Amino acid sequence: MNPANYLYVSALLFTIGAIGVVVRRNAIVVFMCVELMLNACNLAFVTFARINGNLDGQVVAFFTMVVAACEVVVGLAIIVTIYRSRRSASVDDASLLKR
Amino acid sequence: MTSNSLVYLIALPLFGAAVLLLSGRRSDRWGHIFGTLMSAGSFAVGVSLFLKMLGNPTGERALTQKLFSWISVGSFQVDAGLLADQLSICFVLLITGVGTLIHVYSIAYMSHDLDRRRFFAYLNFFIAAMLLLVLGDSYLNLYVGWEGVGLASYLLIGFWNQKPTYATAAKKAFVANRVGDMGLSLAIMIAFATLGTVSFQGVKEHASQASTGSLTAIGIMLLVAATGKSAQFPLQAWLGDAMAGPTPVSALIHAATMVTAGVYLITRSNFIFDLAPTAQLAVAIIGAITLLFGAIIGMAKDDIKKALAASTMSQIGYMVLGAGLGPAGYAFAIMHLLTHGFFKAGMFLGAGSVMHGMNDEVNMRRYGGLRKFMPITFATFGLGYLAIIGVPPFAGFYSKDKIIEVAFNAGGVKGIALGTAALLGAMITAFYMTRVVILTFAGSKRWDDKAHPHESPFLMWAPMVLLALGSVASGFFFTHGNSLRNWLAPVVEATPSHEGELLSPAVVSILALVLVALGVGYAIIKYLLNEVPQVAPADVTVFTKAARKDLLQDNFNEAVFMRPGQSLTRGLQVADTKLIDGAVHGIARFAIGSGNLLRKTQTGFVRSYAMWILAGAIALVATIWVVTL
Amino acid sequence: MGHTQTPEAVLFWVLGPLAVLSALAMLMVKKAVHSAILLAWIMITLAIFYIAQDAAFLGIVQVVVYTGAVMMLFLFILMLVGVESSESLTETIRGLRPIAVVAALGFGGLLVSLIGHATIGRAYVGLVDANAGGNVQALAGLLFSKYVWAFEVVSALLITAALGAMVLAHNHRLIQRPTQRDLATARFRGTSLASAAGLPGPGVYALHNAVDVPALLPDGTPSQASISATLKARGDVIDSRPFQLSAIENEEE
């Protein structure tokens, strides 16, 4: 089996995550789709590390995980704050910039 | 010969004008005296220069003075210089002499006017500008004076600018002058282009080297300038309206001096016209047309000043005709100019005197029988009248008859046509001038008791008497022993004239006198022996109606120039609002419209923005994909 | 390339499609909690993939940090926001769904094609040599030599994120926190003394102790607040009137 198959899976997961961001209305689900995209990237990095024979890809995947974790923390805090003031977790309700 | 005192001729009145204008109301008490003194001082300098010139031998009579180097651009060199030769000194004496007399007259005439000081300032300015015109030694220097007198005329015609009609008359005069000024500018430009110089001396020397075509062009342009300034056909419409100014202005500017500037210009440019026979013929024809034109208009005018203005137009036509007859006619044109200065100014001052006595009434139909109440005015006016109709031994007889004679002697069809026109003009002149005198001074009184006609004060009738003396004696003085002609010969008769002799002088004089008598007789029958209605009769021939309306020149100007000009302006204005403003607004509208279109992308929904981001990412990946294909 | 053994191939072909299907399902379920669970499953699948690709450390970190911490954090927030919140699947923005589908197909196609183009002919090395001294040791060697600067920066980022979360979650008190004294005075200054003693729990009643019988307030009225909302909704509340105390018979010994 070709290790590149993992890359195809990664691409598919990334696409699905991107579409999820656009399609879903619940802010938390949107956030989860962003996490899915990041994870897909991680899979790609790890696969490349294996293909190229050095661990640089794994180190980058490691950093990506750390950054994603921080991002989740802050992002969810923001969502909670918005929810507290607006009583709604739908991204469509935050449309004050509408023309 | 150089002289250092030429500049004082101009400097004195200019200084007077400056002082009177800058000092404002402070000089109201003595302003008029000061102005008159400046003018008299200029006259004194002129007389001393004339005596000096008399003392010099004929070849060295011209006096020059270079003031400063004015323009020095490459090959174009013009100095601000003055030239007083035999021709210009005649004008200097006329301008300053008659000018000073009119200054004196104005002291009394304008005594009730609060702005008298300003009037004298403008009069002084006019004297200075006119002197610069006749003393300039190049066309460009002449042009400065030319413009100056145009400005002075505008200021003085519109002196009582509280009345809108007067201000409009001033504008009309200025605009008509401007058309003529275009001619002078073009003439200067053509002269520089073809001859390389614009000074009189330079043009005189190089004229024979230029082609006839360019000389004819210069000549025609100079003729255009002269018609504008001297109110000749077709630019004569402004002279009647210019009577809106105070009577001293009409006397000085529109009778004696400014309107004669055109004749001066043509005479001064004799070296050009003598080499361009076509242009010279055009000058003669214009002169002939105008003298008949003015005479016909003069027959129908009831306003005394307008009648005199038409007469001025006609008499200047005589001068222009004389100047257009070549070396034979220049001297007589100048002679007629000088004599005309005396009698026309005198008659205008007389008209002013009548108006002063009749409470500023100008309609001659309301005069009548005034000789009993204003004897001095009647006497001086009468002498001027006899001079203008050409009764011997008064001034006009000598000058006018000489012009008619030279016209006939020009030979051929041209000579006969011009001579006949001049004779006809003499007859009509006699008629309408007699009409003026009868309506004003003779007959029964047509005014009611509200008017109190009285003789004018000393300061008014004294200049009139002096001018009347001139009307009487000047003709004889100029002709005796060909004095004027010999005096002017070095300037105007460079090329010898080929005079034929169609009619002898005696025949011409007899013919003229017969026609004059006919004219006088007819006027006497019509106006003295018949009742003169107080209101102008309405059932008159179409010719009279046309003559009352200045032979429809104003209507023509309006239809041909004014209305197309107005519609052009309106069209441009519409183009400006619709096209140019429209284009500018269109740009704004386009900006707003495209902005509105772009606004539609701002939906406010995060998800559609996310979609745009995704689209961008797709575009990026697609580009990479295309590149790696 | 085909340098992997059969067990790995089996692993991949079972779990790979499963992961993709779970991702699709994550997009399409109505309840957010279901999406969270599906995402957790995807992450576990990915952890298995990491371990299968000789990234043992990363695989364990994926389970511990991502599935364990991050997904649990998601679930906590979901509980805060509202577990029952489910959104309708009809689209409010016109035309977004078709565009999204087209974009998905396009994007996916492009990526797959690109990847295929990039990896065909690439030499496969494998991580046997790199992991010679152990995966953790090799990673540590790289982290603290080549990537030490990024390491320090990321640790600063972690601290900042923790601070940020604290700041954002901080609740500014707009009014002063009521002290015990304030609470006590409010109890007795209320509209009626009926609630001064506090609300009883469900089933507390003078003669009856049942979940579906409303409790009595000090002034004798039954308190509907003591019954569970579910029972009330089901209509299983028993009338408490037969159990009300009559006037207290104090004279009885």
TrEMBL record, chain A:
It is a multi-pass membrane protein. Keywords: Membrane, NAD, Translocase, Transmembrane, Transmembrane helix, Transport. It is found in: Membrane. Coiled coil: none annotated. InterPro entries: NADH_UbQ_OxRdtase_chain4L/K, NUOK/Mnh_C1-like. GO terms for molecular function: oxidoreductase activity, acting on NAD(P)H. GO terms for cellular component: NADH dehydrogenase complex. The chain crosses the membrane at residues 6-23, 28-48, 60-83. Its main location: membrane. One of its GO terms (biological process) is ATP synthesis coupled electron transport. Belongs to the complex I subunit 4L family. HAMAP family: NDH1_NuoK. This is Unannotated protein.
